[in-house]
Amino acid sequence: MYEALSALGSVVLDPYLLFLIFATTIIGIVIGVLPGLGATTGAALLLPFTLTMDPVHAIAVLATIYVSATFAGSITAILINTPGTSAAAATTFDGFPLAQRGEAGRALGIAVIASTFGGIVSVIVLCFAAPLLARVAYEFRPPEYFALTIFGLSMLASISSGGAVKNLIGGVFGVWLSTIGAERVTAIERFMFGNYELYEGLSFVPVMIGLFAMSELLVQSKMANQAVEYIKMKAVQLPSREDYKKIWKTVLRSSGIGTFIGILPAEGATVASMIGYSEAKRWSKNKEEFGKGSIEGIAGAESANNAATGGAMVPTMVLGIPGSGTTAIILVGLMVHGLRPGPYLFNEQVTAVYQIFGSMFVANVMFLLMGLYAAKIFARISLVPAAILWPIVFALSVIGAYALNSSMLDIWIVLIFGVIGFLARRFGFAVAPIAVGLILGKMVEVNLQNSLKIFNGEWWQIFTQPLAVFFLVLAFLGLCGPQLFRLATRGSFETKDGKSN
Amino acid sequence: MIKQQIVPIVLTIVSVVIIYLALQLDLSPPMIVGDSMQPRAFPIFLMALNLFLTAILAYQIFKTPPKKPEPMNRVTWLSMVLMVLFYGLTVSTDMFIAIAVVMFLLSLAWGERRLLVAAANAVLTPFLIFLLFDNVLRIRFPRGILMNWYYG
Description:
Oligomer: heterodimer
Strand order of the largest sheet of chain A: 1-2
Number of domains of chain B: 2
Largest sheet of chain B: none
Structural class of chain B: mainly alpha
Distance between the termini of chain B: 60 Å
Shape of chain A: globular
Distance between the termini of chain A: 53 Å
Radius of gyration of chain A: 22 Å
Number of domains of chain A: 1
């Protein structure tokens, strides 16, 4: 306890870490306001730059990018009706109409305050929930871990973009990618085609850069010459007392919703903001204002999406199961820097873990200050021409991918997965399930193998383990629950003419 | 009909090819595998699962045909061609020359009309990234025309 508290406090006594958080908050906001880039792409591009850093500093950098870019997406959502990140899509519903009415400064002020509150609440929950969950997870054996990873993969079905079946196909493809290389027990080479650089398997970093950054470049290419409507503003306004009275319940509710959704494996800030927004509307006394510039709508979406950042770190650090695309990259960062994600992290690296949590807290305060005093400047960055910005992303992607292993193969992997990611997105598949599948793939196979060894090859014995059954039932409900619910309620939703509603 | 089902068809072909490749993998002696599974078993199970999911997808497409995706525009095609050019230039000249050339052409393909701006971006960006990686991160880049001259 004292060790955790002192680690949290030590963040503010480490000037280099504070400088890194400050600099990364600026970079994160810049990345967040540039349409198309977003937290996931930003984290993928910055990961190679953290290679020589101390593990805590490196993960603090990635976590800061996550929280600041998630917030910054709202700046362009409000000023140019283009969400900088998908998590800010719900902010456009009311942010832009309010800006069009000449209240852009007020809209941004609400967004900054709500985001900061949501972010800080989720970090506090993270500090308490993560060690508790770690204590439970400490008892997990291979059958429980196997069932847990199956649960994590089943949650891919409900990721916002793509359909359930498409997301599951992406997840399975990602798991298959993890089988490339020498098999762990027998050293039999699988799908290597004679390339011994693949012996240890596919490197996560180039696959992530390819799937997120390079594919985004190709997606953005069709919008190369699009013009945007930019709304000018004087300065960001802090919410008035009336505004606070109107939004405090929404902010509290959405912070809770966002944190909870973030904790669910494979759910992220985008889902959180959509639910935060719809719940804000459902509980509001002024429903008619929604869609026309409601400050409750902005607060609901923004507090939920930033609350999801802390929540998503819980399964990432405690169970090694990423809560979103960005946390998938943070998870890779943890592994690259020798911090083994999982419950042991909370026993072996208490100081490092709480310094990372502390950094996230400080990052939330930093973007509050920058959001209030420099949002106007950052908003102008979003007007950088795509023809200049995306070639820079290309250069960062290929050099960054090379830097990790000094391998040319990694560059070709970036390009190949860039095209795969682009084609997948073109046909309605999301790329995050592929990334999550790749990360979880090894865990699934290794824990299945170990479970089989424990039970002398009798796989059905997995169902004799209560916790494993619990996770498998959750996975089943996650996959089939919506269909079962629809079947069960078909009668009650039918209209008078017999048609289902 | 076939055009609508192109995604399930491609997925089926990929899954079948992977199953075929998995069946070609060596079998490990039972002594090593023990009560666990052969290295080929897991990929085959995954692809069987993928075939099942693909069948559901094909049925969904049959029931509710999706909107036809817009044809890829010229800029997207050009961007992909430039990636191939990047490969060719990297192999034949130098990675940084390839990056600079591709960045310059990418800028023009994306609609940049100011040649000087595009050229400055194409030269300065890789140069600055190189300085950072070489001096701060101590990364050695692959040898080529420029790197041979730089490293000596």
